[in-house]
Structures are given as structure tokens and as C-alpha cells.
Amino acid sequence: MKSHKYRSDFWRIVASAALCIALLGTGIGNGSITAMAAEGEPTATKVADIDASDGYTNLMANEEYPNATTSRYAGRIWADKSVFADETIERDGKKFTNDSDFLVSASFLGSTRSVIGSEPLPVDLMVILDRSSSMANDYDANDNTTPNNRMKNAVTALNGLFQQVKEHSKDSRIALVAYSRQVVTALPLGTYTWEGDLLSTSLVEPSNDVAY
């Protein structure tokens, strides 16, 4: 009798375990599993990178996009591919819908670049300056002399002229030849750089000399 009782208890335990396994398999007896079974398969969440389709507004500086921070990419082709996880997106007033797959936009934009400018043509300037005694003194009928400012005024005018030539084009060249009883090439034809005045005067009897 005891052996029969033990066998009966054993088979009752086995039957109870089998029933529990069956209930778990059907979702009965477990709230979370029942909810998943009732709702069907779990819904996947779509994930995509950030939208970069409007990046050109910050890169291609032109009249249409005056707020762009740089003109580095002006005149080039801008390409972009953006993937959207949203079911609906709107571009240029049009709506695009896809509730099961990803939405993809491809952009290829070209920009024009106009460069308008001018480069001043360099000049060659040759000046011949009188440095005879009449540029330093006036003479009366008795050969008496009175100092004048002709050389000073001439040098002042030449300094202004040379400065304008230098500012016009850094490649401009100037030359100065001074004459009296002898001809002297004060400045050979070339490009010069200086600060202040290029020329000054010094009194050398019987005329003014030009220093530089």
C-alpha cells in the first residue's frame, strides 16, 4: 500500500509540473507574458541619425543665404543623404509618408560664385628735376641773390606724387634724374618702399641738392 501511495503522489507531482509548464507556454498565469501575447509581437522603435538635409544654409554663403557663416564652399557641389525615422516629413511644402520603412532624402546642390574685382595697372614714372641755382635763388640785375622756395616746393610736390604712385600699385616703378651743370641719376628706375617722405633737400652752393 505504501508503494502504491508513493507512486500516486509521484505522478501527481509530475502532472502538476507539466500543467504549470503548459500554462506558462500559453501565457496564462504571467501578466507580462499575457500582455505581450495579447498585443502581438513587440513594436520596434526606428532610430536614425540627425537630419542634415538643410546643412547647406550654413555652408554656401550667397545672396540667397546671407546668414551663412563662411563662403569657403561657394561655387562647389553640396551632397547629403538623410534618413528619417518619422512616419511623415515635410519638404518644400510637400508631405511624404511611410509608416513601415525609413524615409530617405538625397540632396545634390550646386552654387555659383561671382568674383568681381579690379587690379590697378602699375605705372613707370620718370621725373626730371632742375637743380640749378635758380631753384635756390633769385637774381636781380646786379646779380644779387635772394633765396627762394622753388626746390622745397618741387620736392614737396614730388613726395606727394611718389606716394600716390606707391599707393596706386605696389608694382609701380619710379625714377628721378636731376640736372644742373651735370646730370645725376638720383633714383634709378625701380620699385621703392619708404616711410614718410622719400625726398628731402640740402643746400649745396650754388644750388640745392636732392637727398633721398
TrEMBL record:
Annotated VWFA domain residues: 124-200
CDD domains in UniProt: vWFA
Gene3D superfamilies: von Willebrand factor, type A domain (3.40.50.410)
Name of the protein in question: von Willebrand factor type A domain-containing protein
Coiled coil: none
